Amino acid sequence: QYRVGQLYTISKHSHQESEKGEGVEVVKNEPHEDPVHGPGQFTEKRVHLSSGPHSKLPSWARAVTPRIFYITEKAWNYYPYTITGEPRDRGPWGPADSHSLQCSFLPKFSIYIETKYEDNCGDSENIFHSDKILGDHEVSFLDIAFDEIPERYYRSLEDPRFFSSAKTGRGPLREGWRQHTKPIMCSYKLVSVKFEVWGLQTRVEQFVHKVIRDILLIGHRQAFAWVDEWCGMTMEEVRRYEQETQEATNELIGLVAPAISVSEVGQPTATHSAPASAPSTPLSDEAPEFLAPPKSRPRKKSAPETLTLP
Predict the structure, then answer these.
(1) Helix/strand/coil (H/E/C) assignment for every residue in 136-173
(2) Helices (DSSP H) in 18-134: which residue ranges?
(3) What is the number of other CB atoms lying within 10 angstroms of the CB of residue 199?
(4) pTM for the complete prediction?
(5) For residues 227 and 220, what is the distance between their CA atoms, to the nearest angstrom?
(6) Measured between alpha carbons, how far is 295 from 67 in angstroms, rounded to an integer?
(7) What is the SS3 assignment for 73?
(8) CB of 265 within 8 A of CB of 234?
(9) For 59-98, how does the pLDDT look when each residue is reduced to its tens digit (9 = 90+)?
(10) Residue 82 is inside which H or E element, if any?
(11) Phi and psi (nearest 5°) for 149?
């Protein structure tokens, strides 16, 4: 169910957040066979952004970016193990000559995300093994019900504290839901962000980690709140929905829709040299007129909303 819900949510979310000139273009979505991980799905996406006067980027980002640019994301999905992005360096990640979320004008920026999914409440320790963790790292638990999200992304109908599923009877989520809710799934992610520009590296990397945290919270809140839409869908049905939605999204942002081949089985149509990841939740731009979140209890704080550059 989680796998179906994730694919459905990514496609619907991408379409909702896209508009003329900005959005998530799906370049490739095709089967891929890996000698270690077995059959999977490869996706390549371009997140088209603008830094013009009506851009949804923050002001500091508009000041240092071209008027029109895009970010490339490559992902390999060998569910329940996925990889987003090809590692840049040799080492525990292995050799590679490309990297995830490669900005069209900023070659020293990269994000690499390794993901494992398990049906538990997040109590698996050292799931990625110590040799995969490079340098300093922080373990962070994300609570889709009670962690804070930016107010502009808040929708009362997508609040897990109030949502109740008509089909499954799941929800609303109360305090302590992680310890007693069944069924339950956890997405474990090992996220590495690199911005190799002297003087800006630490602040930009911290800001990107904050953005990724918000994206994961928003996407999983939506997956839970949309459960009545995707629950009961087969993998073939969700792949068909994925294809139709991706073509509509490409058309919406003003691109010629490519012949997107989306399938769950069959021989791979292309060979790619990296491991794999499920399509990760795409970058979200500002959504229209969200309601203000209830203030009944203080929420956990995410990283600072703004970043000041010199």
Answers:
(1) CCCCCCCCCCCECCCHHHCCHHHCCCCCCCCCCCCCCC
(2) 59-64
(3) 9
(4) 0.74
(5) 11
(6) 38
(7) strand
(8) no
(9) 666 666 666 677 888 999 999 999 998 654 433 333 333 3
(10) strand 81-84
(11) -120, 160
